[in-house]
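During the reporting period the student researcher (J.K.) took over the structure-prediction task from the postdoctoral fellow and processed the backlog of single-chain submissions. One of the processed entries is reproduced below for the supervisory committee.
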Amino acid sequence: MIPKKVSFQEFSTYYTQVKGFFWEDAQTYPQSSLVTLFSSPYKEFQIFNNASPKDLRQQWETVWKETEKLTEEGLFLAGFLTYELGYLSSESLYSRLSESDCPLLSLTAYHKKETFLVPDPIENEILPSALIEKDPKLSAEEFEKTFSKIQTELLDGNTYQLNFTFPWDIRLFGNPFHYYQSLKLKQRTKYSAFFSFLNGTGNEVFVLSLSPELFWKRSGQHILVQPMKGTSPRGMSPDQEKKKKKSLVQSEKERAENLMIVDLLRNDLGRVAKPGSVRVKSLFDAEPLESVWQMTSQIEAELIEKSFFNSLISLFPSGSVTGAPKISSMKILSQLESTNREIYTGAILQMETLEGKPYSIANVPIRTLVLEEKEKNHLKGRYFTGSGITVLSQSDLEYAECLQKASFLEEALPKDFCLLETMAFYPSGIRFWKEHKARMQHSAEILGFPYSEAKLNASYLEHFHLWTSPKILRLLLSKIGEFIWEAKPLKNPRTRVIRKVKKIQVGDMLTENQFRYKTDQRKIYGAILDYAKLNGWDDVLLCNENDMVIETCLKNVFYREGGNWFTPSLKNEGLKGVLRERLIQKGWVTERDLHFQDLMKMDKVLIGNSVRGFEHVVWEVE
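J.K. obtained the following C-alpha coordinates:
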Protein backbone atom coordinates (compact mmCIF):
# COMPACT_ATOMS: atom_id res chain seq x y z
CA MET A 1 0.00 0.00 0.00
CA ILE A 2 1.49 3.34 -1.09
CA PRO A 3 1.31 5.85 1.80
CA LYS A 4 -0.56 9.08 1.30
CA LYS A 5 1.59 12.16 1.89
CA VAL A 6 -0.16 14.64 4.18
CA SER A 7 0.89 17.51 6.41
CA PHE A 8 1.05 16.99 10.15
CA GLN A 9 -1.90 19.32 10.60
CA GLU A 10 -3.97 17.34 8.10
CA PHE A 11 -3.17 14.07 9.87
CA SER A 12 -3.86 15.56 13.31
CA THR A 13 -7.25 16.89 12.19
CA TYR A 14 -8.16 13.62 10.50
CA TYR A 15 -7.16 11.49 13.48
CA THR A 16 -9.19 13.71 15.82
CA GLN A 17 -12.23 12.95 13.66
CA VAL A 18 -11.82 9.17 13.14
CA LYS A 19 -9.87 8.16 16.30
CA GLY A 20 -8.78 4.51 16.23
CA PHE A 21 -5.33 2.96 16.65
CA PHE A 22 -2.15 3.99 14.89
CA TRP A 23 1.21 2.28 14.57
CA GLU A 24 4.16 4.47 13.67
CA ASP A 25 7.62 3.98 12.22
CA ALA A 26 9.37 7.22 13.16
CA GLN A 27 12.89 5.97 12.47
CA THR A 28 13.12 4.85 8.84
CA TYR A 29 12.08 8.06 7.05
CA PRO A 30 14.09 11.30 7.48
CA GLN A 31 12.09 13.99 9.32
CA SER A 32 8.92 11.96 8.71
CA SER A 33 6.93 9.01 10.04
CA LEU A 34 5.13 6.17 8.31
CA VAL A 35 1.79 5.97 10.13
CA THR A 36 -0.55 2.99 9.82
CA LEU A 37 -4.01 4.01 11.03
CA PHE A 38 -6.79 1.55 11.81
CA SER A 39 -10.29 3.07 12.09
CA SER A 40 -14.00 2.32 11.66
CA PRO A 41 -14.29 -0.31 14.45
CA TYR A 42 -16.32 -3.47 13.82
CA LYS A 43 -16.02 -5.40 17.09
CA GLU A 44 -14.11 -5.13 20.36
CA PHE A 45 -12.76 -8.04 22.39
CA GLN A 46 -11.82 -7.66 26.06
CA ILE A 47 -11.02 -10.22 28.74
CA PHE A 48 -11.13 -9.19 32.40
CA ASN A 49 -10.00 -11.21 35.38
CA ASN A 50 -13.54 -12.19 36.41
CA ALA A 51 -13.44 -15.99 35.98
CA SER A 52 -11.24 -18.93 36.95
CA PRO A 53 -7.77 -19.02 35.34
CA LYS A 54 -8.77 -22.13 33.38
CA ASP A 55 -11.83 -20.34 31.97
CA LEU A 56 -9.79 -17.23 31.24
CA ARG A 57 -7.28 -19.27 29.23
CA GLN A 58 -10.15 -20.76 27.24
CA GLN A 59 -11.53 -17.25 26.60
CA TRP A 60 -8.09 -16.17 25.38
CA GLU A 61 -7.91 -19.05 22.91
CA THR A 62 -11.48 -18.46 21.70
CA VAL A 63 -10.91 -14.73 21.20
CA TRP A 64 -7.59 -15.27 19.44
CA LYS A 65 -8.98 -17.77 16.96
CA GLU A 66 -11.97 -15.53 16.24
CA THR A 67 -9.67 -12.59 15.55
CA GLU A 68 -7.59 -14.75 13.19
CA LYS A 69 -10.78 -15.65 11.34
CA LEU A 70 -11.74 -11.97 11.06
CA THR A 71 -8.35 -11.13 9.53
CA GLU A 72 -8.89 -13.91 6.96
CA GLU A 73 -12.16 -12.14 6.07
CA GLY A 74 -10.28 -8.87 5.43
CA LEU A 75 -10.58 -7.03 8.74
CA PHE A 76 -7.68 -5.57 10.72
CA LEU A 77 -6.96 -6.24 14.40
CA ALA A 78 -5.06 -4.01 16.82
CA GLY A 79 -4.74 -3.72 20.57
CA PHE A 80 -2.75 -5.11 23.49
CA LEU A 81 -2.04 -8.07 25.74
CA THR A 82 -1.04 -7.35 29.32
CA TYR A 83 1.96 -8.92 31.04
CA GLU A 84 -0.41 -10.63 33.50
CA LEU A 85 -2.06 -12.51 30.62
CA GLY A 86 1.18 -14.50 30.61
CA TYR A 87 0.19 -16.07 33.93
CA LEU A 88 -2.34 -18.11 31.92
CA SER A 89 0.46 -19.78 29.97
CA SER A 90 1.24 -22.16 32.85
CA GLU A 91 -0.92 -23.65 35.61
CA SER A 92 1.90 -22.98 38.07
CA LEU A 93 1.34 -19.24 37.51
CA TYR A 94 -2.48 -19.20 37.79
CA SER A 95 -2.38 -18.11 41.43
CA ARG A 96 -0.40 -14.98 40.54
CA LEU A 97 -3.42 -13.30 38.90
CA SER A 98 -4.89 -10.35 40.82
CA GLU A 99 -7.73 -7.91 40.26
CA SER A 100 -7.33 -4.90 38.00
CA ASP A 101 -9.46 -2.36 36.11
CA CYS A 102 -7.23 -2.99 33.11
CA PRO A 103 -8.38 -5.85 30.85
CA LEU A 104 -5.98 -8.74 30.42
CA LEU A 105 -6.55 -8.47 26.68
CA SER A 106 -8.10 -5.74 24.52
CA LEU A 107 -8.30 -6.17 20.74
CA THR A 108 -10.46 -4.29 18.25
CA ALA A 109 -11.38 -5.38 14.74
CA TYR A 110 -11.36 -2.47 12.27
CA HIS A 111 -12.82 -2.17 8.79
CA LYS A 112 -10.34 0.42 7.57
CA LYS A 113 -6.55 0.59 7.28
CA GLU A 114 -4.74 3.64 5.88
CA THR A 115 -1.07 4.53 5.65
CA PHE A 116 0.29 8.07 5.72
CA LEU A 117 3.71 9.61 5.33
CA VAL A 118 3.59 12.47 7.84
CA PRO A 119 6.34 15.07 8.28
CA ASP A 120 7.54 15.83 11.79
CA PRO A 121 5.44 18.51 13.45
CA ILE A 122 7.01 21.88 14.00
CA GLU A 123 6.82 23.36 17.48
CA ASN A 124 3.75 25.56 16.98
CA GLU A 125 1.79 22.57 15.61
CA ILE A 126 2.05 20.75 18.95
CA LEU A 127 -0.24 21.96 21.70
CA PRO A 128 1.63 22.82 24.91
CA SER A 129 1.80 20.11 27.55
CA ALA A 130 3.78 19.61 30.71
CA LEU A 131 4.84 16.69 32.83
CA ILE A 132 4.05 18.01 36.30
CA GLU A 133 4.94 14.90 38.28
CA LYS A 134 7.36 12.03 37.65
CA ASP A 135 7.70 10.19 40.94
CA PRO A 136 9.48 6.81 41.15
CA LYS A 137 7.64 4.57 43.60
CA LEU A 138 10.86 2.91 44.73
CA SER A 139 13.73 4.77 46.38
CA ALA A 140 17.38 3.83 45.96
CA GLU A 141 17.34 2.38 49.48
CA GLU A 142 14.24 0.26 48.76
CA PHE A 143 15.76 -0.85 45.45
CA GLU A 144 18.90 -1.98 47.26
CA LYS A 145 16.86 -4.11 49.68
CA THR A 146 15.05 -5.81 46.78
CA PHE A 147 18.35 -6.16 44.95
CA SER A 148 19.74 -8.15 47.91
CA LYS A 149 16.76 -10.53 47.76
CA ILE A 150 17.32 -10.99 44.01
CA GLN A 151 20.99 -11.79 44.61
CA THR A 152 19.91 -14.51 47.06
CA GLU A 153 17.60 -16.01 44.41
CA LEU A 154 20.44 -15.86 41.87
CA LEU A 155 22.95 -17.51 44.18
CA ASP A 156 20.41 -20.20 45.08
CA GLY A 157 20.02 -21.01 41.37
CA ASN A 158 16.29 -20.13 41.21
CA THR A 159 17.00 -17.67 38.39
CA TYR A 160 20.04 -16.73 36.30
CA GLN A 161 18.86 -13.27 35.33
CA LEU A 162 15.87 -11.32 36.61
CA ASN A 163 14.24 -8.31 34.97
CA PHE A 164 12.99 -6.34 37.97
CA THR A 165 10.71 -3.33 37.35
CA PHE A 166 8.94 -0.64 39.35
CA PRO A 167 6.35 2.06 38.54
CA TRP A 168 6.45 5.85 38.48
CA ASP A 169 3.43 8.03 39.24
CA ILE A 170 2.84 10.44 36.37
CA ARG A 171 0.78 13.64 36.19
CA LEU A 172 0.42 15.47 32.91
CA PHE A 173 -1.27 18.69 31.90
CA GLY A 174 -2.12 18.81 28.22
CA ASN A 175 -3.41 16.76 25.31
CA PRO A 176 -2.17 13.13 25.24
CA PHE A 177 -1.99 13.01 21.41
CA HIS A 178 0.19 16.11 21.31
CA TYR A 179 2.32 15.00 24.27
CA TYR A 180 2.93 11.75 22.37
CA GLN A 181 4.08 13.79 19.37
CA SER A 182 6.56 15.77 21.48
CA LEU A 183 7.97 12.55 22.97
CA LYS A 184 8.19 10.93 19.53
CA LEU A 185 10.58 13.64 18.35
CA LYS A 186 12.96 12.61 21.17
CA GLN A 187 12.38 8.84 21.08
CA ARG A 188 12.21 7.88 17.42
CA THR A 189 11.47 4.18 16.99
CA LYS A 190 10.02 1.79 14.41
CA TYR A 191 7.42 0.41 16.80
CA SER A 192 5.56 3.35 18.35
CA ALA A 193 1.80 3.27 18.92
CA PHE A 194 -0.95 5.58 20.14
CA PHE A 195 -4.51 4.57 21.02
CA SER A 196 -7.10 4.57 23.79
CA PHE A 197 -9.43 2.01 25.34
CA LEU A 198 -12.11 1.83 28.04
CA ASN A 199 -11.09 0.22 31.31
CA GLY A 200 -13.25 -1.79 33.71
CA THR A 201 -14.81 1.35 35.22
CA GLY A 202 -15.75 2.73 31.78
CA ASN A 203 -13.07 5.45 31.77
CA GLU A 204 -11.01 6.23 28.68
CA VAL A 205 -7.33 5.33 29.05
CA PHE A 206 -4.66 6.61 26.65
CA VAL A 207 -1.61 4.54 25.72
CA LEU A 208 1.50 6.35 24.47
CA SER A 209 4.07 3.73 23.47
CA LEU A 210 7.51 4.84 22.30
CA SER A 211 8.93 1.35 22.49
CA PRO A 212 12.08 0.55 20.50
CA GLU A 213 11.74 -3.21 21.08
CA LEU A 214 10.24 -5.56 18.50
CA PHE A 215 8.57 -8.54 20.18
CA TRP A 216 7.70 -10.51 17.05
CA LYS A 217 7.17 -10.05 13.35
CA ARG A 218 5.29 -12.88 11.67
CA SER A 219 4.64 -13.38 7.96
CA GLY A 220 3.06 -16.71 7.11
CA GLN A 221 4.98 -19.32 9.10
CA HIS A 222 8.16 -17.25 9.38
CA ILE A 223 8.72 -15.41 12.66
CA LEU A 224 11.44 -13.01 13.83
CA VAL A 225 11.98 -11.94 17.45
CA GLN A 226 14.41 -9.23 18.54
CA PRO A 227 15.06 -9.03 22.29
CA MET A 228 16.71 -5.94 23.77
CA LYS A 229 18.94 -6.56 26.74
CA GLY A 230 21.91 -4.42 27.75
CA THR A 231 22.04 -0.63 28.08
CA SER A 232 24.59 2.16 28.20
CA PRO A 233 24.09 5.98 28.32
CA ARG A 234 24.77 7.97 25.15
CA GLY A 235 27.97 10.00 24.92
CA MET A 236 28.20 13.79 24.72
CA SER A 237 30.73 13.86 21.87
CA PRO A 238 31.72 11.62 18.92
CA ASP A 239 34.66 10.26 20.93
CA GLN A 240 32.46 9.50 23.92
CA GLU A 241 29.88 7.88 21.64
CA LYS A 242 32.47 5.45 20.26
CA LYS A 243 33.68 4.61 23.78
CA LYS A 244 30.14 4.09 25.12
CA LYS A 245 29.20 1.83 22.21
CA LYS A 246 32.42 -0.18 22.46
CA SER A 247 32.05 -0.46 26.23
CA LEU A 248 28.50 -1.83 25.84
CA VAL A 249 29.40 -4.38 23.17
CA GLN A 250 32.44 -5.60 25.10
CA SER A 251 30.82 -5.59 28.56
CA GLU A 252 30.97 -9.07 30.10
CA LYS A 253 27.88 -8.34 32.20
CA GLU A 254 25.77 -6.96 29.31
CA ARG A 255 26.78 -9.72 26.88
CA ALA A 256 25.99 -12.41 29.47
CA GLU A 257 22.60 -10.81 30.13
CA ASN A 258 21.80 -10.62 26.42
CA LEU A 259 22.95 -14.18 25.72
CA MET A 260 20.77 -15.62 28.48
CA ILE A 261 17.67 -14.08 26.89
CA VAL A 262 18.70 -15.20 23.40
CA ASP A 263 18.99 -18.79 24.69
CA LEU A 264 15.63 -18.47 26.45
CA LEU A 265 13.88 -17.30 23.27
CA ARG A 266 15.58 -19.96 21.19
CA ASN A 267 14.13 -22.54 23.56
CA ASP A 268 10.67 -20.90 23.47
CA LEU A 269 10.71 -20.97 19.66
CA GLY A 270 12.13 -24.48 19.58
CA ARG A 271 8.93 -25.82 21.18
CA VAL A 272 6.71 -24.47 18.37
CA ALA A 273 9.06 -24.30 15.34
CA LYS A 274 9.98 -26.80 12.67
CA PRO A 275 13.03 -28.83 13.76
CA GLY A 276 16.27 -27.15 12.73
CA SER A 277 14.64 -23.87 11.69
CA VAL A 278 15.57 -21.81 14.78
CA ARG A 279 18.51 -19.60 13.91
CA VAL A 280 20.29 -16.68 15.60
CA LYS A 281 20.33 -14.07 12.85
CA SER A 282 22.44 -11.48 14.70
CA LEU A 283 24.01 -11.18 18.13
CA PHE A 284 25.13 -8.25 20.32
CA ASP A 285 24.16 -5.39 18.00
CA ALA A 286 24.31 -1.90 19.54
CA GLU A 287 21.45 0.38 18.50
CA PRO A 288 21.51 4.14 19.25
CA LEU A 289 18.37 5.52 20.91
CA GLU A 290 17.85 9.11 22.02
CA SER A 291 19.19 8.67 25.57
CA VAL A 292 20.88 5.24 25.60
CA TRP A 293 22.76 2.66 23.56
CA GLN A 294 20.75 -0.56 23.52
CA MET A 295 22.08 -4.07 22.81
CA THR A 296 19.84 -6.26 20.61
CA SER A 297 19.91 -9.71 19.01
CA GLN A 298 17.66 -11.38 16.42
CA ILE A 299 16.33 -14.96 16.30
CA GLU A 300 14.16 -16.37 13.52
CA ALA A 301 12.26 -19.62 12.95
CA GLU A 302 9.56 -21.38 10.88
CA LEU A 303 6.40 -22.14 12.89
CA ILE A 304 4.64 -25.50 12.70
CA GLU A 305 0.97 -24.61 13.28
CA LYS A 306 -1.10 -22.25 11.13
CA SER A 307 -2.89 -20.79 14.16
CA PHE A 308 -0.56 -18.54 16.14
CA PHE A 309 -2.19 -19.23 19.53
CA ASN A 310 0.02 -22.14 20.68
CA SER A 311 3.12 -20.29 19.49
CA LEU A 312 1.99 -17.23 21.45
CA ILE A 313 1.48 -19.30 24.61
CA SER A 314 5.10 -20.42 24.35
CA LEU A 315 6.52 -16.96 23.60
CA PHE A 316 4.43 -14.76 25.86
CA PRO A 317 5.53 -12.68 27.69
CA SER A 318 8.90 -12.01 26.13
CA GLY A 319 11.83 -13.50 28.00
CA SER A 320 13.60 -10.14 27.67
CA VAL A 321 11.24 -8.72 30.33
CA THR A 322 11.09 -11.66 32.72
CA GLY A 323 14.43 -13.37 33.14
CA ALA A 324 15.70 -16.92 32.77
CA PRO A 325 14.27 -19.44 33.32
CA LYS A 326 11.01 -17.70 32.46
CA ILE A 327 8.44 -19.43 34.72
CA SER A 328 10.66 -19.43 37.79
CA SER A 329 11.60 -15.79 37.18
CA MET A 330 7.96 -14.76 36.81
CA LYS A 331 7.13 -16.40 40.15
CA ILE A 332 9.93 -14.49 41.89
CA LEU A 333 8.95 -11.21 40.22
CA SER A 334 5.33 -11.59 41.31
CA GLN A 335 6.55 -11.62 44.93
CA LEU A 336 9.04 -8.74 44.58
CA GLU A 337 7.14 -6.26 42.39
CA SER A 338 4.59 -4.15 44.24
CA THR A 339 1.98 -3.75 41.50
CA ASN A 340 0.69 -5.27 38.26
CA ARG A 341 2.66 -4.29 35.18
CA GLU A 342 -0.49 -4.42 33.01
CA ILE A 343 0.30 -3.14 29.48
CA TYR A 344 3.96 -2.55 30.33
CA THR A 345 6.09 -5.46 29.01
CA GLY A 346 3.04 -7.24 27.56
CA ALA A 347 2.49 -6.68 23.82
CA ILE A 348 0.96 -3.99 21.61
CA LEU A 349 0.14 -5.54 18.26
CA GLN A 350 -1.58 -5.42 14.91
CA MET A 351 -2.83 -8.38 12.81
CA GLU A 352 -4.07 -8.77 9.25
CA THR A 353 -3.86 -10.95 6.17
CA LEU A 354 -1.16 -9.54 3.94
CA GLU A 355 -0.44 -10.88 0.45
CA GLY A 356 -2.51 -13.95 1.29
CA LYS A 357 -0.54 -14.75 4.47
CA PRO A 358 -1.31 -14.17 8.14
CA TYR A 359 0.76 -11.19 9.26
CA SER A 360 1.26 -9.73 12.70
CA ILE A 361 3.74 -7.46 14.40
CA ALA A 362 4.07 -6.58 18.08
CA ASN A 363 6.28 -4.44 20.23
CA VAL A 364 7.27 -5.05 23.83
CA PRO A 365 5.70 -2.03 25.56
CA ILE A 366 8.67 -0.49 27.29
CA ARG A 367 9.01 3.32 27.34
CA THR A 368 5.22 3.36 27.44
CA LEU A 369 2.87 5.75 29.28
CA VAL A 370 -0.64 4.78 30.34
CA LEU A 371 -2.75 7.85 31.24
CA GLU A 372 -6.32 8.46 32.37
CA GLU A 373 -7.94 11.91 32.16
CA LYS A 374 -9.08 12.97 35.64
CA GLU A 375 -10.35 16.40 34.61
CA LYS A 376 -10.02 18.56 31.52
CA ASN A 377 -6.43 18.35 30.24
CA HIS A 378 -5.26 16.86 33.53
CA LEU A 379 -4.14 13.24 33.26
CA LYS A 380 -2.71 10.79 35.76
CA GLY A 381 -1.13 7.45 35.12
CA ARG A 382 1.82 5.11 35.33
CA TYR A 383 5.17 4.64 33.70
CA PHE A 384 7.54 1.74 34.43
CA THR A 385 11.27 1.23 34.18
CA GLY A 386 13.23 -1.94 34.79
CA SER A 387 16.66 -3.50 34.83
CA GLY A 388 18.06 -6.95 34.08
CA ILE A 389 19.92 -8.13 37.18
CA THR A 390 22.55 -10.86 37.24
CA VAL A 391 25.22 -11.92 39.77
CA LEU A 392 27.54 -9.42 38.06
CA SER A 393 25.17 -6.48 38.65
CA GLN A 394 25.68 -3.61 41.10
CA SER A 395 22.68 -2.11 42.88
CA ASP A 396 23.58 1.57 42.42
CA LEU A 397 24.32 1.15 38.71
CA GLU A 398 21.09 -0.76 38.08
CA TYR A 399 19.03 1.88 39.87
CA ALA A 400 20.78 4.63 37.91
CA GLU A 401 19.92 2.77 34.70
CA CYS A 402 16.24 2.75 35.69
CA LEU A 403 16.36 6.51 36.27
CA GLN A 404 18.16 7.02 32.95
CA LYS A 405 15.42 5.14 31.10
CA ALA A 406 12.87 7.69 32.32
CA SER A 407 14.90 10.67 31.12
CA PHE A 408 13.20 10.87 27.73
CA LEU A 409 9.99 12.03 29.49
CA GLU A 410 11.76 15.24 30.47
CA GLU A 411 11.58 18.40 28.42
CA ALA A 412 14.91 19.19 26.74
CA LEU A 413 16.16 22.25 24.87
CA PRO A 414 15.56 21.65 21.15
CA LYS A 415 18.26 22.06 18.53
CA ASP A 416 16.86 25.44 17.44
CA PHE A 417 16.23 27.90 20.24
CA CYS A 418 17.07 31.48 21.18
CA LEU A 419 18.47 33.02 24.33
CA LEU A 420 15.98 35.40 25.92
CA GLU A 421 15.96 38.43 28.19
CA THR A 422 12.66 39.99 29.32
CA MET A 423 13.02 43.61 30.44
CA ALA A 424 11.06 46.68 31.51
CA PHE A 425 11.47 49.78 29.32
CA TYR A 426 10.68 53.35 30.35
CA PRO A 427 11.38 56.54 28.37
CA SER A 428 14.49 56.94 30.50
CA GLY A 429 15.81 53.55 29.32
CA ILE A 430 15.80 49.83 30.12
CA ARG A 431 15.75 48.92 33.78
CA PHE A 432 18.87 46.90 34.71
CA TRP A 433 20.11 47.07 31.09
CA LYS A 434 23.73 46.39 32.05
CA GLU A 435 22.81 43.31 34.08
CA HIS A 436 20.55 41.86 31.37
CA LYS A 437 23.32 42.23 28.79
CA ALA A 438 25.82 40.55 31.10
CA ARG A 439 23.51 37.58 31.72
CA MET A 440 22.84 37.07 28.01
CA GLN A 441 26.55 37.29 27.22
CA HIS A 442 27.39 34.71 29.91
CA SER A 443 24.71 32.30 28.59
CA ALA A 444 25.94 32.82 25.03
CA GLU A 445 29.52 31.95 25.98
CA ILE A 446 28.46 28.76 27.79
CA LEU A 447 26.04 27.56 25.08
CA GLY A 448 28.15 28.56 22.09
CA PHE A 449 26.09 31.48 20.69
CA PRO A 450 27.99 34.27 18.86
CA TYR A 451 27.57 37.46 20.88
CA SER A 452 28.61 41.03 19.97
CA GLU A 453 27.86 43.80 22.44
CA ALA A 454 28.56 46.41 19.77
CA LYS A 455 25.99 44.76 17.48
CA LEU A 456 23.51 44.61 20.38
CA ASN A 457 23.93 48.29 21.27
CA ALA A 458 23.50 49.28 17.61
CA SER A 459 20.36 47.17 17.42
CA TYR A 460 19.00 48.84 20.56
CA LEU A 461 19.55 52.32 19.17
CA GLU A 462 17.70 51.34 15.98
CA HIS A 463 14.60 50.48 18.00
CA PHE A 464 14.81 52.99 20.85
CA HIS A 465 12.87 55.75 19.03
CA LEU A 466 9.91 53.37 18.40
CA TRP A 467 9.12 53.03 22.11
CA THR A 468 7.42 56.13 23.55
CA SER A 469 5.65 54.56 26.54
CA PRO A 470 6.47 51.85 29.12
CA LYS A 471 7.01 48.46 27.45
CA ILE A 472 7.83 44.88 28.25
CA LEU A 473 10.71 44.04 25.92
CA ARG A 474 11.78 40.56 24.83
CA LEU A 475 15.31 40.42 23.46
CA LEU A 476 16.21 37.21 21.64
CA LEU A 477 19.64 36.07 20.45
CA SER A 478 19.64 33.42 17.71
CA LYS A 479 22.27 30.73 17.15
CA ILE A 480 23.71 32.76 14.26
CA GLY A 481 24.15 35.86 16.45
CA GLU A 482 21.11 37.88 15.31
CA PHE A 483 19.28 40.07 17.85
CA ILE A 484 15.50 40.24 17.68
CA TRP A 485 13.31 42.68 19.61
CA GLU A 486 9.67 42.20 20.62
CA ALA A 487 7.65 44.82 22.54
CA LYS A 488 4.24 45.01 24.20
CA PRO A 489 2.69 47.58 26.56
CA LEU A 490 3.70 47.42 30.21
CA LYS A 491 0.28 47.63 31.83
CA ASN A 492 -0.43 48.22 35.52
CA PRO A 493 3.16 48.11 36.72
CA ARG A 494 2.05 48.47 40.37
CA THR A 495 2.58 45.51 42.68
CA ARG A 496 -0.35 43.15 43.22
CA VAL A 497 -1.15 40.63 45.92
CA ILE A 498 -0.81 36.93 45.05
CA ARG A 499 -3.55 35.28 47.08
CA LYS A 500 -3.09 31.66 46.12
CA VAL A 501 0.13 29.90 45.23
CA LYS A 502 0.25 26.28 44.11
CA LYS A 503 3.31 24.16 44.85
CA ILE A 504 4.58 21.72 42.20
CA GLN A 505 7.69 19.53 42.35
CA VAL A 506 9.68 20.03 39.16
CA GLY A 507 13.22 19.18 40.16
CA ASP A 508 13.32 16.14 37.85
CA MET A 509 11.11 17.58 35.09
CA LEU A 510 13.45 20.25 33.73
CA THR A 511 16.97 19.85 32.46
CA GLU A 512 19.83 21.74 34.06
CA ASN A 513 20.04 24.02 31.02
CA GLN A 514 16.36 24.94 31.32
CA PHE A 515 16.91 25.94 34.94
CA ARG A 516 20.15 27.85 34.45
CA TYR A 517 19.66 29.72 31.17
CA LYS A 518 16.72 31.80 30.05
CA THR A 519 15.60 30.83 26.54
CA ASP A 520 12.48 31.16 24.41
CA GLN A 521 11.62 27.54 25.21
CA ARG A 522 9.23 28.44 28.02
CA LYS A 523 6.17 26.39 27.07
CA ILE A 524 6.56 23.99 29.99
CA TYR A 525 6.37 26.95 32.40
CA GLY A 526 3.32 28.25 30.55
CA ALA A 527 1.62 24.87 30.66
CA ILE A 528 2.30 24.50 34.40
CA LEU A 529 0.90 27.97 35.02
CA ASP A 530 -2.18 27.23 32.88
CA TYR A 531 -2.75 24.07 34.88
CA ALA A 532 -2.57 25.99 38.16
CA LYS A 533 -4.87 28.78 36.98
CA LEU A 534 -7.41 26.22 35.76
CA ASN A 535 -7.63 25.11 39.39
CA GLY A 536 -7.95 28.64 40.82
CA TRP A 537 -4.33 29.39 41.70
CA ASP A 538 -2.57 32.67 40.88
CA ASP A 539 0.96 31.40 40.55
CA VAL A 540 3.11 28.29 40.88
CA LEU A 541 5.87 27.72 43.39
CA LEU A 542 8.43 25.32 41.94
CA CYS A 543 10.20 22.93 44.31
CA ASN A 544 12.67 20.12 43.72
CA GLU A 545 12.07 16.46 44.56
CA ASN A 546 13.06 17.15 48.20
CA ASP A 547 10.54 20.01 48.51
CA MET A 548 13.28 22.65 48.58
CA VAL A 549 12.01 25.96 47.18
CA ILE A 550 13.39 27.00 43.77
CA GLU A 551 11.35 29.91 42.32
CA THR A 552 7.95 30.57 40.74
CA CYS A 553 7.20 30.25 37.04
CA LEU A 554 8.27 33.87 36.42
CA LYS A 555 9.84 35.24 39.60
CA ASN A 556 12.40 34.64 42.32
CA VAL A 557 11.37 34.17 45.95
CA PHE A 558 12.40 36.43 48.84
CA TYR A 559 11.55 35.98 52.52
CA ARG A 560 12.19 37.76 55.82
CA GLU A 561 13.08 36.08 59.09
CA GLY A 562 14.24 37.84 62.24
CA GLY A 563 14.64 41.17 60.45
CA ASN A 564 16.89 39.75 57.68
CA TRP A 565 15.99 39.03 54.06
CA PHE A 566 16.91 35.79 52.28
CA THR A 567 16.42 34.10 48.92
CA PRO A 568 16.61 30.35 48.25
CA SER A 569 19.99 29.03 47.22
CA LEU A 570 19.79 28.03 43.57
CA LYS A 571 22.79 25.72 43.35
CA ASN A 572 22.10 23.99 40.00
CA GLU A 573 18.35 24.72 40.04
CA GLY A 574 16.63 28.00 39.32
CA LEU A 575 17.31 31.06 37.22
CA LYS A 576 19.65 33.76 38.42
CA GLY A 577 17.17 36.61 38.15
CA VAL A 578 18.62 40.03 37.46
CA LEU A 579 16.77 41.65 40.40
CA ARG A 580 17.84 38.80 42.67
CA GLU A 581 21.52 39.15 41.71
CA ARG A 582 21.44 42.95 42.24
CA LEU A 583 20.03 42.53 45.76
CA ILE A 584 22.64 39.89 46.65
CA GLN A 585 25.49 42.07 45.36
CA LYS A 586 24.30 45.01 47.46
CA GLY A 587 24.17 42.80 50.53
CA TRP A 588 20.46 43.35 51.07
CA VAL A 589 19.59 39.69 50.54
CA THR A 590 21.47 36.50 51.53
CA GLU A 591 21.24 33.05 49.88
CA ARG A 592 19.93 30.31 52.13
CA ASP A 593 18.31 26.92 51.39
CA LEU A 594 14.63 26.84 52.25
CA HIS A 595 12.22 23.90 52.68
CA PHE A 596 8.65 24.42 51.52
CA GLN A 597 7.12 23.68 54.93
CA ASP A 598 9.32 26.38 56.52
CA LEU A 599 8.29 29.03 54.02
CA MET A 600 4.90 29.40 55.68
CA LYS A 601 6.62 30.29 58.98
CA MET A 602 8.46 33.34 57.63
CA ASP A 603 7.59 36.91 58.71
CA LYS A 604 6.96 38.01 55.11
CA VAL A 605 7.29 36.51 51.64
CA LEU A 606 7.77 38.42 48.38
CA ILE A 607 8.23 37.26 44.82
CA GLY A 608 9.80 39.50 42.21
CA ASN A 609 11.66 40.09 38.98
CA SER A 610 13.25 43.01 37.15
CA VAL A 611 10.11 43.73 35.10
CA ARG A 612 7.37 43.81 37.74
CA GLY A 613 9.35 44.43 40.89
CA PHE A 614 8.00 42.83 44.05
CA GLU A 615 4.63 41.22 44.79
CA HIS A 616 3.33 40.19 48.19
CA VAL A 617 2.27 36.60 48.78
CA VAL A 618 -0.65 35.51 50.94
CA TRP A 619 -0.32 31.74 51.27
CA GLU A 620 -3.34 29.58 50.54
CA VAL A 621 -1.71 26.30 49.61
CA GLU A 622 -3.10 22.81 49.01
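The committee noted the following: DSSP finds 15 helices and 32 strands in the chain.
J.K. will present the remaining backlog at the next meeting.
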